[in-house]
Input
Amino acid sequence: MSTPDRFVRRSRDKDDAAMAHKGARSGARYVTVKGRDDMVESLRVLTRARASALKAHKAAIEQIRSLIVSAPDTVCDQ
Output
C-alpha cells in the first residue's frame, strides 16, 4: 500500500522518541516517492491530457443536448 499508517500521519512533527519507537516496531508503511523519469512523466502527462479531453467532450455533449431541448419548435422541425 502506498499510503502511510494513521500513526505516521498523526505523529508527524512530534518529537517523542517513544512514539517513534512504537511506529518502528509496528511495521509502519512509508510512502514511496514517485519516479520522475521520462517514461513515467510522459505517461502522467498523457493520462492528464486524456482526462481533460474527456471532460471537455462531456461538457460539449451536454451543451448540445441542452440547446436541442431548449430550442424553439420552429428550429427543431427543420
User: Anything to note?
Assistant: Residues 40 and 61 are 32 Å apart (CA to CA). Helices lie at 6-10, 17-25, 38-70, 73-76. Residues 38-70 form the longest helix (33 residues). The chain has two domains: 1-32, 35-70.
